[in-house]
Specification:
Layout lengths: L2 H11 L21 E5 L2 E4 L4 E4 L14 H11 L10 H13 L5 E5 L2 H16 L3 E6 L11 E2 L9 E2 L6 H4 L2 E5 L3 H11 L3 E6 L15 H12 L2 E5 L12 H5 L5 E4 L10 E5 L1 H4 L18 H14 L4 H22 L4 E5 L2 E5 L8 H5 L3 H13 L2 E2 L8 E2 L6 H15 L3
Bound molecules: ligand KE4.
């Protein structure tokens, strides 16, 4: 059936026709493509149109779609049952891989999404410290738990206000939202609220305002501020976990957070999240400790089979080659934008990148928001027409996979040249 008809059909019985808002193309306009299947670096819509995919299911598909070994692992596991609601050996296998890959992690609790991982991390930090306030950063997204859907109050370091209807102001005000990369704001907020502070949660490489790396010293400031105030440092590595290295950004940066949130890649495209950290903190979780947390399908054997197959393949993969492929794509696009005389920034770390149409460096959500999102939307549509599937929103990250080829990059740059004619 035609994508347009499917979308009309879907909207009758699913809010906005989608099960996650960003998929509805509202930020870029037009009709979302309904995908029928995917393999390697390609996705194919229900009308048979093929696209080179840079969304990668928002990060998980780092090996490319339907990797044969991952599919085989899912098939093999499914034949032995899909869920038991009882402990399984495969959960030990997954926990061991995460502990081995993250020096900061001594224990792991599996959940079914990144939201659950971050929500649990916040509750655990509050339960472990006995404190209620948390600090997050504007433009960083940690899933849709109430305490994390909060935006900055009127002034910096003031009490948060709900980022969505349905969130009680009394809860929102416990979340302090600061500008990313603003170490002074962090020090001021900790000076003011430090003894009430349970944690600071951050995407160590921000992906949810578009890709924005930390300024030198910013993450170190968070580590020092949490040590000083007796609060916990939570790295939300749901995107960066196993994306930039076989481990996290924390490994590359030489930092040790107290808790780490994971998701996406560790599920190999199936619903998996995880929370890891120091033993004394993690053992505060039920049933060893009083902080309650649970999940019917947590550690699901099928999902973990896909995740473990993915991690075991990743362990032998040359991340520098993946980064080099991403560098070729981004520098090729930069050359084309320069030739066209367009103001642009391309923020890239490893194989995650974002294109902004702006002359100023994008270092936080304020500068990201000043970029020309209309022009981004037109560029997105031009690329889509040319068979290139970018993230359908400015404030997202694009991703390369190990399945992308030099030919994919060449075709993408040719499409980019064509799309630029429409800008
Ligand atoms: P999920 O609950 O969507 O599995 O994970 C929430 C989450 C937590 N932390 C970070 C750093 C994340 O990026 C996410 C989810 N990312 C979005 C894309 N920016 C998922 C896509 C969507 O919402 O449909």
């Amino acid at each position: 059936m035609e994508t347009r008809n499917l979308f009309a059909e879907a909207q009758k019985i699913i809010p906005g026709g989608v099960n996650s808002p960003v998929r509805a193309f509202r930020a870029v306009g037009g009709t979302p493509r309904f995908i029928r299947e995917a393999a390697g670096s390609k996705i194919i819509d229900t009308e048979g149109r093929e696209y080179i995919d840079y969304v990668a299911s928002w990060g998980p598909m780092i090996l490319g779609h339907s990797h044969p070994d991952v599919v085989a692992a899912i098939r093999e596991a499914a034949g032995r049952g899909t869920s038991y609601g009882a402990p399984t050996e495969i959960e030990i296998e997954m926990a061991r891989r995460i502990v081995d890959a993250f020096p900061s992690v001594e224990m792991v609790r599996m959940v079914s999404s990144g939201t659950e991982a971050a929500m649990t991390a916040i509750r655990l930090a509050r339960g472990f410290t006995g404190r209620d306030r948390i600090i997050k950063f504007a433009g960083c997204y940690h899933g849709h738990a109430d305490s994390l859907l909060v935006k900055a109050g009127s002034g910096v370091a003031t009490l948060g206000i709900p980022g969505s209807p349905g969130i009680p102001p009394q809860l929102a005000e416990l979340t302090i939202t600061l500008p990313f990369n603003d170490s002074d704001a962090v020090q001021n907020a900790v000076a003011r609220y430090g003894d009430e502070l349970a944690c600071i949660i951050v995407e160590p490489i921000a992906g949810n305002m578009g890709v924005v790396p930390p300024r030198p010293g910013f993450l170190e400031t968070l580590r020092a501020a949490t040590h000083q105030s007796g609060s916990l440092l939570i790295f939300d590595e749901v995107i960066t976990g196993f994306r930039l290295a076989y481990g996290g950004w924390q490994n590359l940066a030489g930092l040790i957070p107290d808790l780490t949130c994971l998701g996406k890649i560790i599920g190999g495209g199936l619903p998996v999240g995880a929370l890891g950290g120091r033993r004394e903190i993690m053992e505060t979780l039920a049933p060893t400790g009083p902080v309650y947390q649970a999940g019917t399908l947590s550690g699901n054997p099928i999902a973990l089979s896909a995740g473990i197959a993915t991690l075991d393949i990743l362990r032998g993969k040359p991340y520098p080659a993946l980064d080099a492929m991403a560098s070729r794509l981004c520098s090729g696009m930069a050359d084309l934008f320069r030739k066209k005389g367009l103001p642009f920034q391309i923020n890239r770390i490893g194989s995650m990148f974002t294109l902004f149409f702006t002359a100023e460096e994008v270092v936080d959500f304020t500068t990201a928001s000043r970029s020309d999102t209309e022009r981004f939307a037109r560029f997105f549509q031009g690329m889509l027409e040319a068979g290139i599937y970018l993230a359908p929103a400015q404030f997202e990250a694009g991703f390369l996979s190990f399945a992308h080829t030099g030919e994919d990059i060449a075709r993408t740059l040719a499409a980019c040249e064509k799309a630029l004619k429409t800008l």
